[in-house]
Amino acid sequence: MQIDILTLFPEMIESVFNTSILKKAQEKDKFHFNLVNFRDFTENKHNKVDDYPYGGGAGMVLSPQPIFDAVDAITADKESKPRIVLMCPQGERYTQKKAEELAEEDHLVIICGHYEGYDERIREHLVTDEISIGDFVLTGGELGAMVVVDSVVRLLPEVLGNQESAPQDSFSTGLLEHPHYTRPADFRGMKVPEVLTSGDHAKIESWRREQSLKRTYERRKDLLDDYSLSEEDNKILQKLVDKQSE
């Protein structure tokens, strides 16, 4: 996968992408990144990439010319158009499903904004996706872009050491993940549930399913609205409902 990021502050991103799993993914040739300072593409004699908004108002707006020209340069020799993602608080709320969708792409271009916003022509005529990582506003899109890249790259084949890790993550199954424990079995009197040390894999899977449903019901009940529940799942949830009403 090729990932190009348009940013005014490439130094914010480089160290993160050359660390931990993202670094290992590059060493395995699973993804490559290119940081593009779109200020290098401005035709403004003062090297500006923003201007005052038509109609007045607070703040400055990113001009279309540097961003369009930067994307043109990135895609000039490409046979197919990449997904062009705009990091924006007005965008689609980012989810694990969206990460899985983007992980199927060969080429992503991510645009990081600053100031008051983008010239609307960038939204209308250039980008394919607008993404928000939450209902809050950051000083720029770089942090959001790093979140997106990390969540996408870890889904690429052979990036994680254990290929079962990503499919079992919270949100990947539609539910929150079950609790985890490791050694020692007894730590300061706090003991690991006996079922996990029993060696009975059928019981362990049943316990994990029950715990996953319980955690989702208690913390993110909204996820159950669109989830296809089995008859056994409904029985587990009914027990939780009955217990709460006692």
Characterise this structure.
With 246 residues, the chain is α/β, with parallel strands linked by helices. The protein has two domains: 2-153, SPOUT methyltransferase, trefoil knot domain (Alpha/beta knot); 173-245, tRNA(m1g37)methyltransferase, domain 2 (Trp Operon Repressor, Chain A, Orthogonal Bundle). 35% of the residues lie in helices and 16% in strands. The protein has eight helices and ten strands. It has helices at 11-17, 20-27, 64-75, 96-102, 120-125, 142-153, 201-219, 231-245, and strands spanning 2-6, 32-36, 50-51, 61-62, 83-93, 107-111, 117-118, 129-132, 186-187, 190-191. It has a five-stranded parallel β-sheet with strand order 2-1-6-5-8, with helices on both faces. The protein has a three-stranded mixed β-sheet with strand order 3-4-7. It has a two-stranded antiparallel sheet with strand order 9-10. Helix 1 runs parallel beside helix 6 (142-153) and helix 7 (201-219) crosses helix 8 (231-245). The longest helix has 19 residues, at 201-219. The N and C termini lie far apart (53 Å).
What's the pLDDT, averaged over the residues? Answer: 94
Name the structural class.
alpha/beta
What does the main sheet amount to? 5 strands, parallel
How many domains is the backbone divided into? 2
Short description, anyone?
Helix content is 35%, strand content 16%. It has helices at 11-17, 20-27, 64-75, 96-102, 120-125, 142-153, 201-219, 231-245; strands spanning 2-6, 32-36, 50-51, 61-62, 83-93, 107-111, 117-118, 129-132, 186-187, 190-191.
